[in-house]
Amino acid sequence: MIFTLAFKSLWFEKLVSFCIFASLCSVIAPLMFLFSLKYGIISTLEHDLKSSPLKLEIKMMTGYKLDENFINQVKNDSKVQFCLPLTRSLSATADINYKGKIKTSLSALPTESGDPIAKASNLDGVLKENEAYLSQTLCDDLKIKTGDTFLLVISRIVDSKDKTALLSLR
After folding, report:
1. Considering 15, 58, 132, 156, which has the largest number of Cβ atoms within 10 A of its Cβ?
2. Is the pTM of this model over 0.90?
């Protein structure tokens, strides 16, 4: 009976009821949006920024020649998790040849045991000298399976001369 009277009262003053409902929605909706931004999107972005090895990586953008003392000092720093004394971005093009199929202009990234990028990709990070990790997309394109052997071709221009290295990897 009370609900019936309340509904009839709301229906009788439907314009006023609609205005009250609209004003509540206009206040609550932006607050819910801001709340979801703060505790959803923004906190996820903050977490990724603080924990992703790709975002924490420091890259040298120009050709520095660093001595071994500097590299050892960085390796021994307690704030540094991983140090690789090679450039991550090689000034070379990498091509892969597998059973006559060729993929050109690929990125080649050096790695070492304990590499956080390999760990973040659920890889153990332990490779032998003739082994390499390949992306799933590349393996799907070339139909390469774990344990298959492929040919890696690295080409560079050094002192206006083309240099090419061939490497058989697994």
Report:
1. 132
2. no
Number of Cβ atoms within 10 Å of the Cβ of 115: 22
CA of 159: how far to CAs of 56, 60, 163, in Å?
A: 34, 22, 10
Query: Which residue is it, tokens 């697994």?
Result: 170
Cα–Cα–Cα angle for 163, 143, 131, rounded to 5 degrees: 50
How is residue 125 written in tokens?
């990070």
Which residue do the tokens 């890889």 mark?
123
pLDDT digits (tens, 9 = 90+) for 14-30: 788 788 889 988 999 88
Q: What angle do CA 142, 147, 149 make, to 5 degrees?
A: 60
Report the SS3 class of residue 150.
Answer: strand
Give me 146's structure tokens.
């774990």
